[in-house]
Amino acid sequence: MASTLLLAFSLLFTFVTLTTSVNPGFILTVVNNCPFPIWPAIQPNAGHPVLERGGFALGPLTHRSFPAPAQHWSGRIWGRTGCTTHANGRLSCATGDCGGLLECDGRGGAPPATLAQFSLHHGHTDLSSYAVSLVDGFNVPMTVTPHEGHGTCPVVGCKANLLATCPDKLQVRAPQGHVVGCKSACEAFGTDELCCRNHYNSPQTCRASSYSEFFKRACPSTFTYAHDSPSLTHECSSPRELKLIRFGLSIQASLRGKPNLVSPSLRALKLPYTLARREDSFKHLRMRFYRPQRDM
């Protein structure tokens, strides 16, 4: 009998203000509240340093803390899923793979992937901007939650499991048959209109499609196409704490004959992870989500 295996996990990214007299900054703490490991990924925008070599493995019910730069930093965070390590040391993931590397170190990754985008320490009031994007598709639920900042500081993101409702033409399936990702329309069909390229690369000509509306209905506070509303980028001034990311993953599969759905490499807890480069940027405190330039 077919069943649904719900693998629910959450990552808690916490930025805590340091009150040093020289370089006030943030400590980033990544918490995995799940009974299995996950592969978060951190990637800077151009000109900013790579944090933690761009990725690491995080075992179940554990956390990892590291400093974010005290000066302005912008970048993105996502999670890879379904990763397996091979005898030659190469890593392959069902979503978010970056050329078989354990640590991407600035290299690109493969969509679909839910993406969180941040710009820290910008402006004269120490603003931090943040948003969640489904422009490159969806692989895990993700939210950004700030605490004790000044301003509206809303929670944004996507709590829905879109793997269960993804349209057939957008589905990415594992060899076992279960859905592991939901592509963007651009990734699935590649047209200028859906990718907002060439003539369509402006707010006037780049429009929502029926596919981007699927994402928007489920997750209204996310970006769903390249020129989506910039009001969906939110800001906090001098936050004391930002609980930034909460991931969740649902995998539908038949449990008959599949007692080891989680791969041996996951159980071994030995794999670091990676991220994808995006040419996303804040401009006038607004984020634009463009298609990634992949490093091959």
Automatic annotation (TrEMBL):
<protein>
    <recommendedName>
        <fullName>Osmotin-like protein</fullName>
    </recommendedName>
</protein>
<dbReference type="Pfam" id="PF00314">
    <property type="entry name" value="Thaumatin"/>
</dbReference>
<dbReference type="InterPro" id="IPR001938">
    <property type="entry name" value="Thaumatin"/>
</dbReference>
<feature type="signal peptide">
    <location>
        <begin position="1"/>
        <end position="21"/>
    </location>
</feature>
<dbReference type="InterPro" id="IPR037176">
    <property type="entry name" value="Osmotin/thaumatin-like_sf"/>
</dbReference>
<keyword id="KW-0732">Signal</keyword>
